[in-house]
Design brief:
The complex is a heterodimer of chains A (287) and B (246). Chain A contains 14 helices and no strands. The longest helix of chain A is centred in the N-terminal third of the chain and has 26 residues. Chain A has 287 residues and is mainly α. The termini of chain A are far apart. Helix content of chain A is 83%, strand content 0%. Chain B has a six-stranded mixed sheet with strand order 5-6-7-3-8-9, sandwiched between helices. Chain B has a three-stranded antiparallel sheet with strand order 2-1-4, with helices on one face. The mean pLDDT of chain B is 90. Chain B is globular and about 55 Å long. In chain B, helix 5 crosses helix 6 and helix 6 runs parallel beside helix 7. Classes of the chains: A mainly alpha (287), B alpha/beta (246). The interface between A and B is medium-sized, with 24 and 28 residues.
Chain lengths: 287, 246
Amino acid sequence: MAFIEGIMQYDFLQKALLTSVMVGIICGAIGCFIILRGMALMGDAISHAVLPGVAISYALGINFFFGAVFTGVLTAMAIGFVSQNSRIKQDTSIGIMFTAAFAMGVILITVLESSTDLYHILFGNVLAVRPSDMWITLVIGLVVLGSIYLFYKELLVTSFDSVMASVYGLPVRLIHYFLMALLTMVTVASLQTVGIVLVVAMLITPAATAYLLTDRLSTMVFLASTIGAVSAVIGLYFSYTYNLASGATIVLAATALFIIAFVFSPKHGLLWKKINSKKKQSELAKL
Amino acid sequence: MTHALKIENVTVSYHGRSAIEAIDLTLGKGNILGIIGPNGAGKSTLLKAILNLISVDSGSINILGGSLKENRNRIAYVPQRNQYDWDFPIHVMDAVLIGTYPSLGIFKRPKKSDKAWALECLEKVGLAQYANRQIGELSGGQQQRVFLARALAQKADLFFLDEPFVGIDIASEEMIVKLLKDLRDEGKTVVVVHHDLSKAKEYFDELLLLNKQLVQFGRPAEVLRPEVMRKAYESELAFLFEAGVS
């Protein structure tokens, strides 16, 4: 296969593969907590909110990681501030803040005439991953996975029962912002691979697929990471072979895996549910 | 012996409208207290105020002879059942194991002894055979027992339960009542927000009748008198009269 030969041969493809697999893993892992906390929209918001940070970083000549994390966390805090201090509901607040940040980003990129290619930031260009990007992704990956490992207990209890968590003294709000910071870092790491617009798919789709396959959070995190990584490999294959945008192919690969789980999942799949209800009907008919 | 709970002049308001006003209460250890009252009387609000889940406008709350902060690890809270996402990917056993988290502290994971203890608590509520089920697969009564098991796993001295008997089967209700009485007999204190008046006399040692203000606090025989109850339920009764029920 040309893809495998390509990987052996080309340094850029090796980097692309390593980076996108890493992105698949960390997006899947953090995505589990995002969907269980009902924060899918928040994932979308944060990913868009990093744009102005990226633009400013390029203009200042610093690594885009710093600017992106700054505006990402700032937007998360602004969303929280508005919904806590007015009658505006959380999802409305998200809608206001992230579009504002995104619009600001679009203008900044134009005004600052930075060399950044807006198209690549929006949709990803994994085949142009530089070594520095790869290292950033790797470091972010270690930080994110390490945090999930260390704070697994706290993330579990605040996701499942935040009231009990605050009664026994956990800083629930701090943990929320900590998760937002991790989410921002994951978004930044995913910029090159899938781009801003499609990051949310990598956060949600593999996690949702895993959610259909297991009833245990630890298994779900592991499965979502695996599904994210597999999607990345499949997507990269199609991107390279047919010269398509890597973000789009990776996301569609993840979607395909989701559809398979949606239909065939042993416990929560459509097919199994149909068979089960048929069984029950025929049992009732016998009575 | 110090008291389990001492509330002085506590007032809570939402958006400028008061939910509970000037509540005073002193509860000795080794009691089961039922908080009763009509809808909107502020029963859950009082519980949330005690647990510092909402801020109080004024007054002081003393728990087990200290502040909530000082005695966090000695209290256990069982929220209303409708609070949970029953599709959450967690097994019964893991849900009970959460009860050991407060004593573990950060970074530490439950050890074998913690797991054995959680299983023991699950046995106490008669659900050991369901340890590896997803929580949503259980019936309402079983779910409530799981969360009681989790509270037991916390090894608390003071237990708070918010409407634990809503929508559950009678066998589960009886089992929960028995376990609460066992806790009381061990010298622990239990506070229950309760809706149904019919069994209040059998379930509780003390009753707090609430209707924004404290209407009556005392032994069930003192509280469950028609002339006392009428004071709290007057507005609901007026509605019934108007509707022509009686």
